[in-house]
Amino acid sequence: MEAASKLDVEAIRADFPILQRRIGDKPLAYLDSAATSQKPVQVVEAMRRFTDHSNANISRSVHTLGAEATEAYEGARAKVAAFIGAPSPDEVVFTKNSTESINLMAYAFQNAAFDPAADPRFKLGPGDEVVVTEMEHHANLIPWQQLCLRTGATLKWIGITDDGRLDLESLDEVITERCKVVSFVHVANLLGTVNPTSPITRRAREVGALVGLDASQSVPHLPVDVTELGVDFIAFTGHKMLGPTGIGVLWAKADLLAAMPPFLTGGSMIKTVTMERTTFADAPAKFEAGTPPIAEAVGLAAAVDYLDKLGMANVRAYEKELAGYMLERLETVEGLEIIGPRVPIGRSATVSFTFEGVHPHDVGQILDAEGIAVRVGHHCAKPTCERFGVNATTRASGYLYNTHEEIDRLVEALGQVRKVFG
Amino acid sequence: MNLDELYQEVILDHYKRPRGAGLREPYEGESHQVNPTCGDEITLRVHVEGDKVADVSYDNVGCSISKASASVMYELVNGATVDDALAKLAEFTELMNSKGQSEGDEESLEDAVAFAGVSKYPMRVKCALLGWKAFQDALIRAEASSGRTNA
Ligand SMILES: Cc1ncc(COP(=O)(O)O)c(C=O)c1O
User: Fold this and answer.
1) Is A148 a catalytic residue?
2) Residue ranges of the NIF system FeS cluster assembly NifU N-terminal domain (chain B) (predicted)?
3) Alpha-carbon gap, residue B109 to A404, rounded angstroms
């Protein structure tokens, strides 16, 4: 509780106007931050200030606004780099979202297949293996699955235990000498599991595979230092970390980015162009074809500032305590079954559950009538659902602005669900 | 929000005691439909005899709205002529697209008018239409294979 008290949640809530909303006559309890977080006024104001004062395209004009916009955009890159402990801002590529970041990586492999001079680390073909886990969001499954289908490589995955943890016992079997890349979710969006990274990165290194993280649910919630993690790439998305939609990040080691063929091509990513051929700019520009999300980068930088000021260790401590409270309270609800780890260790404040045979759609609808916003469905993790024999779950996910009282309201409202469907 | 309007007695009753549930033979057309946003699924079979829908049988997983809707549909189209069944399909679809502006004609839609309230919830309209979509598709397949039975 001591660490938790380092966040002044009342003061934080005052920065999020949407949290004052009422749904019908009930105050909003927003428990869907794993889908997208809310944005503090600081983020919206930074974007507005930029738009009202400095808006211009970047790297193209000599005028004052152009210079200011370029500075703001590159400043955002530097801020994000520092936030995740990246050795250089040039290792930070801005994308549209996590999904695009992961596709950018997967397409580096696919495009390398057509290039005889490609770096051997990206050469993939029959006999080679790609490893993910059974708890991936579709964003970190389908790009690799399709890559394997197209190149003839084999997709393998680390399974899940009944407790909702990765089955690390099988690690040596799943990750073999044939493996070229391991991409796994850092914090699982359906199960709420915080995966240990070192056993997997160690094994990946042993076999000489590249290793990356889908950090979409970790960067917003806990301290992430890419150097400490010892991975080759991570992907995350602005809108889950208090930032705007329309911007995501791929971080990858400089030497990898240098070796990777581009994903999207066009303006702003070139050195020279003739009608016959093109030489590409250095990273990160090589991967940022076209006009990037400039105002969104400014917003993301403001979100990073906001999180930095609170301190990610404090955010993590608060949410760990919140996760404990969610688990403890939800466990008291008769007929409710938690899908995922049931103890607040190695766990985020994202809790999925089934309830008494009532379909999650119906649960979500009744909770909505009480002003409580949760997500229902398969959470873009159908294989995870299948692993646990469910079609869908109800998922409550907390963030730094959620309170115990909101969890109490959730638990109480589940009683209402029973009344309607009991 | 008025929950009673959405979860009317009739709907809850059909949800708890679905009519005509289970897959049966013979049938000429079968359709499998999923709602990709929530994972709801239905497998539905149609048996046509002459110009009549002689049986509609189904197996589904889903929320109360989608399950109740399939049950209500069964009552409406089972034993009806194919033309009448298609007319009900059109009428119910129109009701679902009415955004809460229509009450539905109880004469012809019977229990299905209870779904009028659902039309105000865009996220749930797809649930209510899933079974009907399967019925429409199965009917097309039955016509395509007309004459032959899978029994
Ligand atoms: C673990 C995980 N990976 C990837 C994504 C995809 O993020 P986006 O939709 O912003 O690309 C999400 C969010 O839905 C997620 O939770």
Assistant:
1) no
2) 7-127
3) 46
Question: Which residue do the tokens 């004609």 mark?
Answer: B105
Burial (Cβ within 10 Å: 0-12, 13-18, ≥19) of residue A169: exposed
Whole-number average pLDDT of chain A = 96
Residue whose C-alpha is closest to residue A122's, from A107, A137, A136? A107
Residue A326 is inside which H or E element, if any?
A: helix A312-331
* Cβ contact B124–A369 (<8 Å): no
Find which of B38, B65, B123 to mutate to test the A interface (most A CBs within 10 Å of its CB). B38
Cα–Cα nearest to A156, from A133, A190, A187: A133
ipTM of the complex: 0.80
Domain regions of chain A by residue span: 9-30+311-421, 46-308
Cβ separation B40–A24 shorter than 8 A: no
Q: Compute chain B's Rg from CA coordinates.
A: 15
Cβ-defined contact of A392 to B38 (cutoff 8 Å): yes
Interface contact A24, partner B, CB < 8 A: yes
Residues of chain A with pLDDT under 70: 1-5
Q: How far is residue A8's CA from residue A31's CA, in Å, rounded to a whole number? A: 18
Residue of B nearest to A369 (CA): B1
CATH number of A9-30+311-421: 3.90.1150.10
Per-residue pLDDT band for B30 (boundaries 50, 70, 90) equals very high
Amino acid residing at A313: A
Q: Indicate yes or no: pTM above 0.80.
A: yes
Helix (H, G, I), strand (E, B) or coil at A357: coil
Q: Do B41 and A361 touch (CB under 8 A)?
A: no
Q: Is the CB of A140 under 6 A from ligand 1?
A: yes
d(CA B92, CA A377) in angstroms, rounded, equals: 25
Min CA distance, B16 vs chain A (Å)? 9
Q: Which of B6, B40, B62 sits opposite A365 (nearest CB)?
A: B6
Residues 6+ apart with CB under 8 A from B87: B108
Given the DSSP bridges, would you call strands A92-95 and A179-185 parallel, antiparallel or unpaired?
A: unpaired
Is residue B1 scored above 80 in pLDDT? no
Nearest Cα residue to A306 out of A53, A12, A108, A28: A12
Out of B7, B38, B65, the one facing A376 most closely (by C-beta) is B38
* Ligand 1 mean position, distance from CA A34 (Å): 9
d(CA A333, CA A347): 20
What are the pLDDT digits (tens) for A228-264? 999 999 999 999 999 999 999 999 999 999 999 999 9
The type of residue at B39 is: G
Q: Does residue A99 line the site of ligand 1, with CB under 6 A?
A: yes
Span A4-60, pLDDT tens digits = 468 999 999 999 999 999 999 999 999 999 999 999 999 999 999 999 999 999 977
CB A335 within 8 A of CB A353: no
3-state SS, residue A157 = strand
Domains located in chain B, CATH noted:
3-146 (3.90.1010.10)
